[in-house]
Amino acid sequence: MENNNYSILLYYCYAAIEDCEAYREEHHLFCIENNIRGRIIISPEGLNGTVSGLKEDCEKYMAYIHADPRFAKTEFKIESHDKHAFAKIHVRVKPEIVHSSLRHIDPNVKTGKHLEPLEFKAMKDQEDVVILDVRSNYEHELGHFKNAVRLDIDNFRDFPEKVKELEHLKGKKVLTYCTGGIKCEKASAFLLEQGFEDVYQLHGGIIKYGMEAGGEDFEGKCYVFDNRIAVDVNAINPTVISTCHVCGTNCDRMVNCANPSCNAHLPICEKCGWELEGACSTTCQEHPEKRPYDGTGYYQKNTNGYNPYKGLFRKPNKETIKNLIHE
Question: CA-CA to 308 of 20 to 30 Å: which in 29, 104, 113, 264?
Answer without folding.
Answer: 264
